[in-house]
Amino acid sequence: MDKTEGESDETVMAVRQQLSRLTERQHAVIVRTFEKMGSNPVKNALQVLVRLFAEYPQYKRIWPQFRAIPDSALINAIELRRHASVYMCGLTAIIHSMNQEDELEIQMKRIAKAHVKWNVHRSHVENMLDPVLEVIKECNDDYDEEAKQAWTTLYDIIAEVIEIYRSKV
C-alpha cells in the first residue's frame, strides 16, 4: 500500500506487520470456511450480532440506530438487518482481498478508521470472536482447531489495526 496523505511510514509498516501474521494456509482456511457462512450472509451475520448483544447488551449503545429499540424487538428490527448486511460486506471485502496485499491493506484501513470513529475498541472485536466462531462452526461440518486459530488470528489483526489507527487520532 502506498502511503496516503497523513499516514506515517510507521503506520504503514505497523499495518503490514500485522497483516503478515496470517499465513497462506490460514488465508485458505478462512476463505474456505467463510464461503459457507457467506452463502446466507445476512442470516449468519444476524446470528453473530444477536449472540454478541445477548452476551454484551451494553454494546447496543455503540450504534445510535439501535439505542431506541427495546432488546426484545432488536432481532426483528430492520436496523439490525441493515447492520448485519454492512458487517458481512466488510468481512467479505477483507476475505476477498486476502490474496492481494495492497487491497487487503486498503480494506483493513477503511474498516479500522470506521471503527475508531464509532469508538470501537480491541475488547469489542475480541468479544465478537466467540459468536463469529460459533456461527462458522455451525456452517462448516469440517470446522477444526486450524479454522479456529485462523479466524482468531484474523480478528486479532483487525483489533490491532484498529488500535494502530486509534493511536493516530
Task: Write a structural description.
Belongs to the globin family. This is GLOBIN domain-containing protein. Pfam families: Globin (PF00042). Monomer. With 169 residues, the chain is an all-alpha fold. Helices cover 73% and strands 0% of the residues. The protein has 9 helices and no strands. α1 runs antiparallel to α9 and α3 packs across α6. The longest helix has 22 residues. The mean pLDDT is 93.
Please outline the helices and strands:
Layout: H1 9-19, H2 24-37, H3 41-55, H4 64-67, H5 71-74, H6 78-96, H7 101-117, H8 122-139, H9 145-166
Number of strand segments: 0
Second rung of CATH, namely the architecture: Orthogonal Bundle
Annotation field: number of helices: 9
Can you identify the CATH class? Answer: Mainly Alpha
N-C termini distance: 20 Å
Tell me the CATH topology: Globin-like
Uncertain runs are: none
**How would a textbook summarize the main sheet?**
none
Helix content: over 70%
Instruction: Report the CATH superfamily.
Output: Globins
H/E element order: HHHHHHHHH
Based on secondary structure, the structural category is mainly alpha
Gyration radius (Cα, Å) is 16 Å
Question: In one word, what is the shape?
Answer: globular
Number of domains: 1
Return the average pLDDT rounded to an integer: 93
Strand content: under 5%
Domain Globin: 21-167
GO molecular function, one term: oxygen binding
Keywords: Heme, Iron, Metal-binding, Oxygen transport, Transport
Subunit structure: Monomer.
